[in-house]
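Why do we bother with a discrete structure alphabet at all? Because it lets us treat a fold like text: something you can write down, compare, and reason about line by line. To make this less abstract, here is a complete entry for Transposase IS4-like domain-containing protein. Read it the way you would read a sentence in a foreign language you are learning: slowly, and without expecting to understand everything at once.
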Amino acid sequence: MSVSIIDSFPIPFCQPIRNFRSKGLGDYANVGYNATKGQYFYGCKCHALVSESGYVIDYTITPASMADSSMTEEVLSQFGTPTVLGDMGYLGQSLHDRLELKGIDLMTPVRKNMKQKKILFPNFSKRRKVIERVFSFLTNLGAERCKSRSPQGFQLKLEMIPFSVFFTVKIS
């Protein structure tokens, strides 16, 4: 069974104290909320689709305020697999219904007050750790530290990170 994992991570452009003074990528970036750290940030979000083996299949960059569920269909449009694992940010019956029409089964954890049954997917949280490892690796390579002032520079930085990984592995 082919399974992929979808999630997003924040790319802050400045410290939270400077959220409303920052002008980096002003037309594209804005203020969003990082639930993991419990703080607002100025920047963008990277929505990524990752294979079970840890390869980034596809990604898209959005303003920080964009909800995870609103970008799901775009990320899955070209490289979607029959089964996709998501987190609580991808809950929503309408999203599940739209993806089901396209032949994609989106598996998410359920809230306690939901009528839906618990997830029957084996090792759900263990499989979701793959994308967290990928995001941790990208963060260690500088994906969350953005000094770019133009959209082209920002995209170049994001494209150079996987290239540098490939180049480092190839030489070793």
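What the structure line is telling us, in plain words: The helical segments are 72-79, 93-101, 124-140, 151-171. The first strand starts at residue 3 and ends at 12.
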